Amino acid sequence: MPREFEIIRKYFRPLADIPTSETDVLVNQGDDCAVVEHTGKLAFSIDTQVENVHFLRSMSAADIAYRGLACALSDLAAMGAKPAFFTLALSLTGQEDESWLADYTRGLTELATQFKVPLLGGDTTRASTIIQTFQVHGTVSRLLTRASARPGDLIVISHTPGLGMAGLDAYRHNGPTELQACYLRPYPQIPLGVFISEFATAAIDISDGLLADLGHILDQSNVGAELQLDALQLDQRFCQWVEPSRQLEWALTGGDDYQLCFTCPPEHRSRLSQAPVPLQVIGEITTHKQLRCRLHGKAVQFDHTGYQHF
């Protein structure tokens, strides 16, 4: 394995040259700090991913890197932010060779280039397992948080839930490649976040599970919700792979979807058809402080709402 500074120079320094239109970079990689000049609101978030907790060592290095940055960028999407730059703290075991490093930066470069988000700095260390921590920064025009949902608002999600968990299961059991990609290569919904920031009242990305993440909006907005599960549409790939008896649970509590869940006033329903991705209305914000689910007119409950570390 190459020495630390050779790794940085050869594999990570080129990512600093990815152009960004969201801020002016005054000092890039190579100094003790990066320096940017920016006027306005700057959103930032940090996300740590640990081998065999957030990703599997058997995954390609490109998928590990791509997935790591995508999950971090998804937080910016939930705030309606446009990506500006990111930093990376990467812990390696020392067993990774140059082929692995080249593959890792290939996956990182692919997504960073797509969203015009350069790598402005970071750190590399040795550890007993691979750990990657991404801090992402983005610019915000209108604040979009979890705390402003109001009774009567529609509850909307992008695409269909459950593909992340189904994709992981497909990866573990050599299932369809297209389904595996839903887990290995999630797409951060940046364009959608910018679009809904004009009219949404609250938003969150679906990382731990739809019920769990919607619950965060309800807690911080001090409201409740009623979901009409009859209206929930599921992807055909998901339905073909997952047993019917498990489909609803996986869709609502599986997590790793990195779609957006947001609320908006009903008078903006017509705007939903103009979104850059398919959307579906699955319920309504209520005054009671509970999350209620109804299926075929009857109340249904789930033993858990999503993933928790502890």
Short descriptors:
four-stranded mixed β-sheet; 60s Ribosomal Protein L30, Chain: A; 31% helix; ThiL-like; seven-stranded mixed β-sheet; alpha+beta; Phosphoribosyl-aminoimidazole Synthetase, Chain A, domain 2; kinase
Describe how the helices and strands are arranged.
Blueprint: H1 4-12, E1 24-27, E2 35-37, E3 41-50, H2 61-78, E4 82-92, H3 98-114, E5 119-126, E6 131-140, E7 154-158, H4 163-172, H5 177-184, H6 190-196, E8 202-206, H7 210-221, E9 224-228, H8 236-241, H9 244-253, E10 259-264, E11 279-286, E12 291-295, E13 298-300
Parallel strand pairs: 4-5, 9-12
Antiparallel strand pairs: 1-2, 3-6, 4-6, 7-10, 7-11, 8-10, 9-11, 12-13
Helix pairs in contact: 2-3, 2-6, 4-5
What's the SSE pattern? HEEEHEHEEEHHHEHEHHEEEE
Uncertain runs with pLDDT below 50, 5 residues or more? none
Task: Give the overall form.
Answer: globular
| Main β-sheet, spatial strand arrangement | 8-10-7-11-9-12-13
What is the highest CATH level, the class of the largest domain? Answer: Alpha Beta
Strand content: 25-35%
* Gyration radius, rounded: 20 Å
- For the terminal residues, how far apart are their CA atoms? 35 Å
Named CATH architecture of the largest domain:
Alpha-Beta Complex
* Whole-number mean pLDDT: 94
- The SS-based structural class is alpha+beta
In this structure, how is the largest beta sheet organized? 7 strands, mixed
* DSSP strand tally: 13
Please name the fourth-level CATH homologous superfamily of the largest domain.
Answer: PurM-like C-terminal domain
Q: Supply the number of helical segments.
A: 9
The helix fraction, in percent, is 25-40%
Overall structural domain count: 2
What is the CATH T-level topology of the largest domain? Phosphoribosyl-aminoimidazole Synthetase, Chain A, domain 2
Binding site for ATP: 122-123, 146, 207
Keywords: ATP-binding, Kinase, Magnesium, Metal-binding, Nucleotide-binding, Thiamine biosynthesis, Transferase
Domain PurM-like C-terminal: 150-292
Binding site for Mg(2+) 4: 32, 45, 75
